[in-house]
Amino acid sequence: MKRSMVLSLSLVVGVLLTGNKPANAQTDEPARHNLLRRLEHQEQARRQRIEQFRLAGKQDLEENRFSAPTILYDILPTGEPLFFTTCNLTAAQNVGTHKLWTGGELQLNLEGSNLTIGLWDAGAVRATHQEFTGRVSQIDNVGFLYTSGSNHATHVSGTLLAAGISPQARGMAKEARLWAYDWNGDVPEMAQAAAAGLLISNHSYGYSAWGMPQWMFGFYDQYAANWDEITYTFPYYLPVKAAGNDGGSGYNSADGGYDLLLGASNAKNALVVGAVYGDTLIPVPKVCVLLLFLLGVLPMTGVLNLTW
């Protein structure tokens, strides 16, 4: 991925590092049931739109247009294809998570014990990786493949919960467990996971801005509304979402570099995270983290890898 364009997502857990609580189980049962049923119907309709698009002989660009892991996610009402693509994230030291660890300057001794983190990403996680063996469950039963999608998912997982067997690869919550999913069908899966007690999840992906109609930038679409309905129904659940990779790409230039959020990045009840280079001064409080990848994990070898 191009370093100059990457916006990152980092799961800053804070007090949630102390562990999950069964709070979501207290929500209204009929509301939960109705939401899950409605989201399943929407998911079936989405898959049908994609199938009809392909059967109509429309060009499927997902394999040859993008350098990052990408899938055809949906078809807009105006007929344009809508793609998911990945976004990068940063290392724990860059957002201060290390200050919460045992021996950290805040003396809180938080390591993620009894915490379960949800992960939706471009592929399956290598659950046998030395940094989190025994702590990753691939809930949707997607098989691990040696692809860029699984590479990205494994790297993100390492940033979240690598044990630190290779010290420089230590994740933010080294004792946490992971519920992993691929990104296809994320919305109903998020609702099901929240109903099962999940409190926080990481989403380092979003709509690709390539070919996006200008009206979609900043538009509160059904996808964003679904995220908000999930968080309304399960008020203790917090999805953490990447703002996107398009800050320096020249998209939507009419707005002078602003108004670039797409899809679920416009959700009102998600934690949407952007990024900055180094110690860039920000005049007002914003949720931003340092841009570049540092040390991560490589799924093909199961050991430490230096990446950008």
Low-pLDDT windows of residues: 1-16, 284-298, 300-308
Mean pLDDT: 79
What structural category characterises the helix and strand content?
alpha/beta
What is the H/E order? Answer: HEEEEHEHEEHEEEEE
Number of domains: 1
As a percent range, the share of strand residues is: 15-25%
Q: Walk across the major sheet and give the strand order.
A: 4-5-3-6-8-9-10
List the helices and strands and how they pair.
Layout lengths: L28 H27 L14 E6 L5 E6 L29 E6 L14 E3 L9 H14 L15 E6 L3 H10 L4 E4 L1 E3 L14 H12 L4 E5 L28 E6 L11 E3 L4 E4 L4 E4 L2
Parallel strand pairs: 3-5, 3-6, 4-5, 6-8, 8-9, 9-10
Antiparallel strand pairs: 1-2, 2-7, 11-12
Summarize the structure in words.
The chain is of the alpha/beta class. It has one domain (3-306): Rossmann fold. It has helices spanning 29-55, 148-161, 186-195, 222-233, and strands at residues 70-75, 81-86, 116-121, 136-138, 177-182, 200-203, 205-207, 238-242, 271-276, 288-290, 295-298, 303-306. A hairpin with a 4-residue loop joins strand 11 and strand 12. Helix 1 packs antiparallel against helix 3. It is globular, with a radius of gyration of 19 Å.
